[in-house]
Amino acid sequence: MVERSGHGDLRASLLTLLGDGAPELPADLGGDTPLISSGLVESTTLLNVALWVEDHLGREVELGSFDLVAEWDSMNAILDFVERHRSDAAIRGSRPG
């Protein structure tokens, strides 16, 4: 697995989440391995990924506003999504509660 700089802790956390929800994931899961389109990650795990993303962004994510397969089909894609939207979250403030 190739690790992108700055993603170390997030990658480990995401990998743990995915492993808990989808124990059949290959042990050598790569950062660009298709998760959704391959069927490795199903709806319950995807919901947990969405909650994880929201937790790391500090706000709710409207899942219907983007194509999940295009944006979250690999660990790298999910991590990139979080990185891209972090500054957005800082500007908008925290999740309403």
Protein model, in words:
- The radius of gyration is 13 Å and the shape is globular.
- The chain is mainly alpha-helical.
- It has helices at 8-21, 43-57, 68-72, 75-92.
- The relative contact order is 0.18.
- It has a domain at 30-92: Non-ribosomal Peptide Synthetase Peptidyl Carrier Protein, Chain A (Orthogonal Bundle), CATH 1.10.1200.
- Helix 1 packs antiparallel against helix 2.
- The longest helix is centred in the last third of the chain and has 18 residues, at 75-92.
Structure described in brief:
This protein has 97 residues and is mostly helical.
Helices and strands in order, then pairings?
Layout: H1 8-21, H2 43-57, H3 68-72, H4 75-92
Helix pairs in contact: 1-2
Task: Label this structure with key terms.
97 residues, 0% strand, globular, Non-ribosomal Peptide Synthetase Peptidyl Carrier Protein, Chain A, disordered C terminus, mainly alpha
